[in-house]
Amino acid sequence: MNRKAANNFLAAFRFAAQTGQPLNLFVTLNMSHTVCTPSLASAAFERLRDNHFTRWLRYRDQLARKSGRPGLGPPTYAWVIEVKDGYTHIHWCVHVRTSHPA
């Protein structure tokens, strides 16, 4: 990860904390274990995120609202792609409420 990407990633952590939704879950996806090339990693991750994570979050938000609890709010996350020594990794930090049921 170069200096600019690292600075932007750290700024996302600070912003998330300032908005009351600190990034409290760290996920690393090793794309080198897939057939996904580094040039397609971003699109593949976005599809994975949109089709699974944000969909799950919307579902949990609807359940919370139906049971009279406050909604979960928008998804809060930051991610960066790192390609080093021929290995592609996606580092993804997410805010998941500690009171959020699985």
Structure explained in plain terms:
The protein has 102 residues and is of the alpha+beta class. Helices cover 41% and strands 22% of the residues. It contains 2 helices and 3 strands; from the N terminus they run H-E-H-E-E. The protein has helices spanning 3-18, 41-66; strands at residues 25-30, 77-84, 87-94. A 3-stranded antiparallel beta sheet has the order 1-3-2. A hairpin with a 2-residue loop joins strand 2 (77-84) and strand 3 (87-94). The N and C termini lie far apart (31 Å). The mean pLDDT is 85.
Explain briefly what this protein structure is.
This protein is 41% helix and 22% strand.
Number of helices: 2
The amount of helix comes to 40-55%
Q: What is the distance, rounded to the nearest whole angstrom, between the alpha carbons of the first and last residues?
A: 31 Å
Mean pLDDT: 85
Computed Rg: 15 Å
Write down the overall geometry: flat
Strand content: 15-25%
